[in-house]
Amino acid sequence: MLKRRQKRQVSSMLQRGSSQKEIMFILIVEIVEFTITALLIGFLIGYGFTWFLTKSTYFLEFSGAGKPPLINLAILFSIIGIGFLLSLIVNTKNVWEMSKITTQEAYSEHQVKKAGWQKFYLDIILIVVGIVLWLIVRSQLTKETAYQFAYGFGTTAPVLLVLGVIMFATRLYPIFLKFISNRSWKKGRLGILAIATKRNSRRKSDVTRSLILITLTFTIIFSSLITIQSYENFDKEVAYYNLGSDILIRNVDPTTNRTQQIISSIEGIESFTSIHFTSQIITYGLLTYSYLVIGIDPAEFAKVAYFEKQYLRGQSPEIFFEKINALTDVVMQEDQLKLINTYTGEQFNIRYEKYAYGTLNQSLNVVGIYKYFPRFFVEFPTPGEPIFRFSIIGTKALVNLFAYSNYSIASDILVKVKEGYSISAVATAIEQQLGRGVDNVEEQMNTFQGSMRNIMLYGSVNSSFLSSLVITVTAIVLMIFIQSIENEREVTTLKVLGMSPKQLFSLFLIEAILVVFFGSIIGIGTGILTAKIFTEILTYQTVIPPTKMIFSPLELSLAAIVLFASAIIAAALTAYIVFRKETIKAMKQI
């Protein structure tokens, strides 16, 4: 619309005697003005978003101790120079053609043609290529040499899918409108809805632009939120799986309680427990049996150790470990047991060596089977290999029974921190009391709250969300304003024919709701799909513990509601301004 008006203005100036050089000078000045305005807006938005980024601690939480962003003048002036240069390069051809435009070209009606990508089904091709590429990458994720391949091609797949789906959405939207229109025309009460769908169908250019922006914003927000939350939960779970609890004190003397007595007085500790373990390797010809025996206090261990329900096949730690009562009661890993033909489901026979006694036999009562066990089960057995590994959990007395000697028993202490206390602070207090280092999960995690990676992750999400909010609102406002200006004759005619302000308001509002609803549904679905792909790529080298896509439904619902509500409110206000325009004044302007 603006370009058409500009063409007519330039044509009028040429008819009145303005030279081509004068026209070019005016057009270049306009480009410079727009470029300066764009750079200023970009600077203000970028500075504000950078501040939000440094202050971000979680989704829509800005309690960080970030400082005002510093400006690198060299980079700033470089960006300004590049911006002017690109603006001139992009608009040079347009300025030249505009400066010698003819009257016929200025006033001729622009015929909207079918886009080239629609003719050649580029959207379908992008979706198919993205899916095929991801399937190929996924088949290679288990290989050690797939690192570069996964990150190189794997990250390309979701980008192709997003582009393809958004383009495909613009192909589906007219079909969606036709479906609603055909059904609403048959019902008198839905006449406004039918008119709104027809108007949307005729304004393909403006509606498509808004649809693309809305779909893209919802895709980015949902993909970012789900990916970051899933990776954060994965990072936390890996840290806990590696240590077994909040804090791990390694290499404790198993014969004394001195360490337990020292840490018992430290503030912030909720509970702790010691674990003993020993190992045996027995060889029969070409076969090797490796046993790792872990001794625990079942009641204490269930309270202190970290376990997810799927680790114990759906059971809670308290119920699972209370089955260990007698000396020979043990729990074992299900995949390791499947490789033993002699295992009957209750008894497990083990041969071990004892100093001064030689080789001995012992039958164990398997009272429980687990899927995963933090720290001590880190690899699934491979069928056909000549090495059999077993992780056996029982009482501390069982460790004494299987230990080759008293010197082959090791011991660690697991510590659980009270809620509300900093794990790192409690770990530091323990280190000061013991005079040596200990491990804690916050040091193991890359995304614990307050870390640079956490700030960058949630800073990018918050910045993306705020920018998406602005883009969504702007897209809807511009769509309604442009339609009201371009079709002022139609709007005025509707008023003259008796359409009430309420009906006109409903007309514009329904048009916006249709675009936002369709774009949000496509965007949410695409965002979830791409988040799943990104999560698998980020975690592909980790098999144990299992990775899963985790997200907060409340936060996703909040993001969707805020974006949707903002768009509808913007549409309502814009529609109110449009239908409040006086009919007589509007008729004079036509």
Outline the structure in words.
It contains 22 helices and nine strands. By secondary structure, it is of the alpha+beta class. The chain has three domains: 1-110, no CATH class; 122-243 and 446-590, no CATH class; 251-437, no CATH class. The protein has a nine-stranded mixed β-sheet with strand order 5-6-4-7-3-2-8-1-9. Helix 10 runs parallel beside helix 20. The protein is elongated and about 115 Å long.
Counting helices, strands and paired strands, the structural category is: alpha+beta
- What would you call the shape? elongated
State the assembly state of the protein chains: single chain
Radius of gyration: 34 Å
Whole-number mean pLDDT:
77
Largest sheet: 9 strands, mixed
Percent of residues in β-strands: 5-15%
First-last Cα distance = 15 Å
Strand arrangement in the largest pleated sheet: 5-6-4-7-3-2-8-1-9
Runs with pLDDT <50, length 5+? 448-452, 583-590
Q: What's the count of strands?
A: 9
Give the domain tally: 3
Question: Percent helix among the residues?
Answer: 55-70%
Helix count equals 22
